[in-house]
Amino acid sequence: MSNDATVAKIRTVFGAALTEADYHEMTNRQTVTELCDYLKGLKRFHVLLSDIEPSTIHRGYLEQLIKKESFMTYRRLIKFEQLDRGEFFKFYIKKAETLQLISFLHMYEAGMNEEYLASVPGYITEYSKVDLLGLASCHSYDEILSHLKKTEYYRPLKHLKRSDGSEPELAKAERALRVHYYKRVLEAAKKELAESEYKEIAKLVGTDADLINYTNAYRMKKYFALDKEEIENRSLPFSRIGIRKMREVYACEETDDMERLMDKSVYRNDSPEQTIESRNAKARIKAVRHMIELTSSAAAALYAFMMICDIETANLTHIIEGIRYKADLSEIEAQLAI
């Protein structure tokens, strides 16, 4: 699929991505007002915040605006050469739907249906084919399944329904939704893209899955001493370095051994003082930047760029929360994926 103009445009937009210097400046800001004022002066967020008065903005609203900017950037990029006609290029909408469903399940389990209703962004409901707002009226797993029956999310969640009528484990439902998302991405890429493009998408999916799995395995081993079978059952069945290699990681008795194995892969860590979350976030951004710089595929460039946007959003949310709780911002800077 030749969309050279889109690849060039993505690289141009990528050129305005946040830098290490930007993050250093932001972690020296003491208030949300100061942070918003700094963001307003950056090309990446200038239009988004042009009508915002930094002295009056609430931290929650700033977080919402940053997330909205990522979504609207995605919309502008897929409309550029009418890429939204293909199923693959709907991946970011599918991701938003998946995350909203997971968010609802967490709130549903806590009995917070009404709070969920207020949390759903309008820009997502505008493009989603799922009635996300209607989920708030569901008060049982059967009602959730009934509500989702005509959507692609019904089948992965239906398989979890228990014969005795009890509620399935939230962790299993979350895993089922994430596995479904990645499968749909890969299936659409296989069907619609050239083989070389499919391999690039599979590499990005595999990288994402490896680092998610490694982070979760590390926590499960360190805090709950789970065995390799339990860890694998909770992991995503995708990998860049290979399922066999990841199984070796899951089988380690100590987290130090896990780290040594990962250091023998493409995810080598040269900063041993980093937390596992920071280490893996930096490995993810390194792989994604490399893809944007080298690919000739609009599909791979866009998928990788949206991963960058998600990383930026997570970094900024982390900084905003740090300001809120008056955390040591130098420590926060060390945790960011840069």
DSSP strand content? under 5%
Extract low-pLDDT stretches: none
Main β-sheet: number of strands, strand sense, barrel status?
A: none
Task: List the secondary-structure elements in sequence, H or E.
Answer: HHHHHHHHHHHHHHHHHH
Shape descriptor reads: globular
Task: Count the DSSP helices.
Answer: 18
- The helicity comes to 55-70%
Q: Mean of the pLDDT scores?
A: 93
What does this 3D model show about the protein?
The chain has 338 residues and is mainly α. It has a domain at 194-296. The chain has 18 helices and no strands. The protein has helices at residues 4-14, 20-26, 32-40, 46-49, 59-80, 91-109, 113-119, 122-127, 141-147, 154-158, 170-192, 195-224, 228-233, 243-250, 255-262, 276-294, 298-324, 329-335. Helix 11 (170-192) runs antiparallel to helix 12. The longest helix is centred in the middle third of the chain and has 30 residues, at 195-224. The chain is globular.
Summary tags:
338 residues, mainly alpha
